[in-house]
Specification:
Length: 190
């Protein structure tokens, strides 16, 4: 007797319980004058919001250093519970859950040396998380955007899915479309 293979386990929908931590989207130190906000929606193939996704971000510090400081996932020594970051140090790592409308928000500092913030998306129905980049248009003009190998390898329509829209001087919108029309470009690492 032969049996069909067991299907692979999909991730979620347990993110709201297991992965978020206090202040996960607050990457910039509290009150830092250089803080920028990057926000958007995670959308499924029909354009509907995904309310139980998580967007992780990581990036170099404004001076281009990539070492980062520890402290994003601090634990209470008495209870062992995650208490989040200390609000003072820049770690370069953020984890923002989507809300009921599929919206995510990260408050961070502009990355140094590259014109983008790296992102990973975890969502229901995904066997593995998806990697992408959030290019900030101001940095594309001023920094390493000219000659960026990834952007140059894409046609204009696909390239546009990686570039955030500046909505005011310190705020950028970046919607992540998991599939369908305008699907975000996702990167494969092996």
């Amino acid at each position: 007797m032969s049996h069909a293979p067991t299907p692979s386990q999909t991730v979620g929908p347990f993110y709201g319980y297991a992965l978020p931590f206090p202040g996960g989207g607050e990457v910039a130190p509290a009150g830092h004058p250089g803080t920028i906000t990057v926000h958007g929606f995670v959308l499924d193939g029909q354009g509907n919001p995904v309310p139980d996704a998580i967007v992780e971000t990581w990036q170099p510090a404004p001076d281009g250093s990539r070492a980062g400081l520890p402290g994003s996932l601090r634990h209470d020594p008495a209870t062992g519970k995650v208490i989040g970051r200390n609000g003072v140090d820049f770690t370069g790592f953020g984890r923002a859950p989507t809300d009921a409308d599929g919206r995510w928000t990260v408050r961070t500092l502009p990355p140094g040396g590259v014109p983008y913030i790296c992102a990973a998306v975890f969502a229901r129905g995904l066997v593995q998380h998806l990697f992408t980049r959030v290019y900030l248009p101001d940095l594309l003009d001023a920094e390493a955007g000219a000659g960026d190998a990834l952007l140059e390898s894409l046609d204009a329509d696909r390239r546009a899915t990686l570039i955030a829209t500046r909505t005011d001087p310190r705020t950028y919108r970046f919607d992540i479309r998991l599939q369908g029309d305008g699907e975000t470009v996702f990167l494969e690492f092996s």
